[in-house]
Known about the structure:
- The chain is built from 12 helices and 10 strands.
- It is of the alpha/beta class.
- It has helices at residues 3-20, 42-58, 73-80, 95-102, 138-147, 162-173, 188-196, 207-216, 262-277, 279-287, 297-306, 309-318, and strands at 31-35, 62-66, 88-93, 114-130, 152-156, 180-184, 202-206, 219-224, 249-257, 291-292.
- Helix 1 (3-20) packs antiparallel against helix 9 (262-277).
- The protein has 2 domains: 3-123 and 250-318, Bordetella uptake gene, domain 1 (D-Maltodextrin-Binding Protein, domain 2, 3-Layer(aba) Sandwich); 125-241, D-Maltodextrin-Binding Protein, domain 2.
- Strands 1, 2, 3, 4, 5, 6, 7, 8, 9 and 10 form a 10-stranded mixed β-sheet that branches.
Amino acid sequence: MHPLLIAIASFAIAVAPLAAHSQSNYPTKNIRLIVPVGTGGPSDLVARLLGEKLAVSLGKPVIVDNRPGASQIIGANVVAKADPDGYTLLQAAANMSINPIMVADMPFDTIKDFAPVTLTHLTPYVFLVSRESPVKSLPELFKFIKDNPGKINYGITGPGSPHQLATLLMAQMAGPLGTMTEVTYKGSTAAHPDLIANRISFMIDPLAAAAPHIRSGLLRGLAVSTPQRNPSFPDIPAAAEIMPGYQFSSWGGVFAPARTPRAIVLKLNSEIGTALATPGYSKTVYRHGAGAQAQHAGRVREFSASGNCAMAGVAREKS
């Protein structure tokens, strides 16, 4: 068994007795899992897979509710303002770390207004162009950008989004590339038609979201953002092979409103950890280029408070 799966399973076994001894009858009604992005991305994929597993293990339907927009703030705000009873949850992403740096006048506090439940996945990114693009490799992309000053545009999903920060990190590490224009979309799925049609020059997108279009040949993967090649796409080089030191990934996790009873948080942590450890779930997530990842709730707080160091550093420089 994969070492990560062993660790997940061991953790689930360790916390299960804590949840079992609680006096809560939770859940007694449907659970709503808010996904603050559109359909098709890694957070949506994970939420739907988890929803199916949790509906069976908890005995109540889990309704996945996509609320995209505003760098995931719209969906997260629904959960921040919800009753702390465990029936409204958030499938969050790394924007929980970055939004406080990039966005003024946040309608909630990402630390004080949420109770972390567990990490769910780690998300590598991939440099993408249309199959209609003349660009065939990452060095060719850099040359293309330099040769077309002021004419290059790229897709992001909002200020402070991992898409934006991955691109800014690329620009910092690749040397002067000249002026590029950001085009903002509500999510990866919304951006893909323009990217496929070559109406935007390139995009750095979650591998899980782009995987179907790479496999179909509609999009061309130039490089993955992790230090090593991804096992699901071994022919796509790692960006670090061309830009030594380049490394970028995002994370996802489940959050509840602040003041949600600890017994409910522990029960959800245990049930999600068990779901993540099932071979079918893990195989699906890995096939889409992401990685299953369960952690104690305290570790999620660390991610939310500090964020990915590279992402936070780029965000502060941008702001």
